[in-house]
Each structure stands twice: as structure tokens, then as C-alpha cells.
Amino acid sequence: MLHSHPRTDLPAIPVYEVGRDWPLETLAIAEARAHALLDEAAAGVPKAALRFGDAVSRRWLARAGNRHLDEIDRVAATIRRPGAHYFNTSYEWGCSTSVGPAPDGRTARLMRVLDWPNDGLGRHIVAARVDGAAGPWVTLTWPGYTGVLHALAPGRFAAALNQAPMDQPVGVFPLDWAVNRVGVWRSAEPTPAHLLRRVFEEARNFDEARRILTETPLALPTIYSLVGTAPDESCIIERREREAHAVEGPASAANEWQCPDWRGLGRGVENDARACMMAEHDRALDPGFAWLAPPVLNALTRLALVADAGTGELVAQGYEADGPATQALTLGGERCR
């Protein structure tokens, strides 16, 4: 039975103070957690298949000149098992997000739920508080993961990404997937998660973050959600490889395009219902996550969070198929600065 009420018998999400080499620093701190995650997430997948996925992924990263390849190589050398390159380029999630003013109308907030089919992602999540060049920021991540799926930069912005619909050049799912994947492998552009990392490392404010997420070419389509510190600073940025469509906030998104001229196979399930439900909530910083209910909450839910860039506050909780997998994490404004 899925539920979202508070539990006191669950482990806490660990919080690590790290620097600009944060993926390897989190791995050095919690390598055992990385192995436990891979044991669960890759359960039933033959090692030969993981090695093949690693080889293909690494070949693409090298051909594209990906700026994080050396870092991923070091992750692979540290864990000494298949999976590092494949999982650092994997995009198999669905998400639900909402952006807009906080209930008191003084700041903007991001509300986000991550869905992913792999077990263990909610149980083994960590919070990395990064001392970055453009200012401190915190990401909910996993040891050795080099991308950013969602993060908060107090006093600057908060952002997350959703998997975008898949183009259907053939009209048959396996063939469409293969054609799309070939296009990705031929690209020399960054992954959506690596571009979001660049934004948190370099952008100084909402406007800079929006410009980078809108204008930078990508290896594959995605949907970004972005809020700044002011109540009128929020938007959804729908991205194709070299095109962008903005939905001004308040707004919500699931895994379908809102641009009327774009077509594609939506990812996840009940996209309309999830997006509508997210739009109805007031983005409260509720550590009990009382708003989290089906279909936004489902068997694939792995993380729920609400982030306020204006106050620097964040609440987050890990989930697995049977419900909450961690205690709710609360970071206050004074602790995030």
C-alpha cells in the first residue's frame, strides 16, 4: 500500500559537505552505498549486458568530448565493477514538477517528484552540499553520479529535469527507440543532466540559468523546470536538441510536450493527471508530504522534494515501491547558505 505519511523508523538521508569534485567526494565518503545501489538497481541484469552498456556509453562520451568523461572513468576505477558509464548516461525516468510562487507570495518554489523503475534509488539517495564557484548549492544525488537531476542554489535558483517525449520516426516503439538512440550517439552535445550541472556550477541567477538552459544545444530532448528567488521567476523550458519552448509560471509538467506544434510519445503514465494534480498544490514546504498521492505517487516514485531558492529551504524524502524509504530531510535557509 503506497503511503506518504511521516515515519520515524526509517534511515535519514545523509548530508555531505563537499567541494567542486563532489561526485568523487561523495563516492569516497559512501562507496558502500554506491555498491548497495548498484546491487539493487542492476539486480537481474547480466554483467555482460552492463559491460556492453558501459562500453557503448563510454565510446559516445569520448567521441562527444564530454567534459565529465575523466570523472566517470575515475568512478569506474574506484568501484571496480560494471555500471558506472551506463548509469551516468541513463535516461529512463518519469517525473512530475510544479513551479510558481510560494503560498505566502514572497518567493518562488519548485515541487518535484522523480519516478524511475530501478530499485534502490530512493533508499540510497544522499544530499551533497556543494561549495561551488558561483555559490553553494545542494543536490539530491547518488555517490559517483556526475549529473544533476534536481538541485537548489540558495539565493540563486532551483531547477529539475523531466524526461521528454520520444520522437516517433517509424511508429513502432523498438525501432523508434533505436533510431532516437542512434541520434544521441552521433551527437557531440552535453546530456541534459550534465548541462543542468553546469548551470548550478556557473549561473549566478535565474536569468543566467534560463539563458543557458534555453540556448545550449543538447544531445537529446528534455524538460527543465526552473524557479528563481522572486515570486514571478518561474518557468518550464521544453527542449529539443536545438529548439526551446518556454511555459511561463505558475506551471506544471510531466512527460508530455506542452508546445502545440511538437509531437512525440509521452514517457511515464497518466501524464495529464499528474501535471494537473501538481498544478493544484500550493507548493508548501511540508515534511509530511501530505500532498503526495496517486497518480503522482506510484510504484516507481523514488524521490519527492520542494525547494525554495529565496529562503534556501528544502524538504525531500526517498521512496521505493512500497512507500517512504527514508525520513524526510529538512534543510533550513541558514544551513543552506
Descriptive overview:
The protein is α+β, with helices and mostly antiparallel strands. It has a single domain, classed as Penicillin V Acylase, Chain A (4-Layer Sandwich). Helix content is 30%, strand content 26%. The protein contains ten helices and 15 strands. The protein has helices spanning 22-29, 31-41, 47-64, 69-79, 84-87, 173-186, 192-202, 206-215, 271-280, 333-336; strands at 15-18, 94-101, 108-115, 126-132, 135-141, 150-153, 157-163, 222-227, 234-239, 244-248, 251-253, 301-308, 313-320, 323-324, 329-331. A hairpin with a 2-residue loop joins strand 4 and strand 5 (135-141). It starts with 14 loop residues before the first strand and ends with a helix.
List the helices and strands and how they pair.
Blueprint: E1 15-18, H1 22-29, H2 31-41, H3 47-64, H4 69-79, H5 84-87, E2 94-101, E3 108-115, E4 126-132, E5 135-141, E6 150-153, E7 157-163, H6 173-186, H7 192-202, H8 206-215, E8 222-227, E9 234-239, E10 244-248, E11 251-253, H9 271-280, E12 301-308, E13 313-320, E14 323-324, E15 329-331, H10 333-336
Helix pairs in contact: 1-2, 7-8
Content of β-strand: 25-35%
Second CATH tier, the architecture: 4-Layer Sandwich
Radius of gyration: 18 Å
Shape: globular
> CATH homologous superfamily name?
Penicillin V Acylase, Chain A
Structural class: alpha+beta
Helix fraction bin: 25-40%
Return the CATH topology.
Penicillin V Acylase, Chain A
Tags for this model:
337 residues; alpha+beta; Penicillin V Acylase, Chain A; 8-stranded mixed sheet; globular
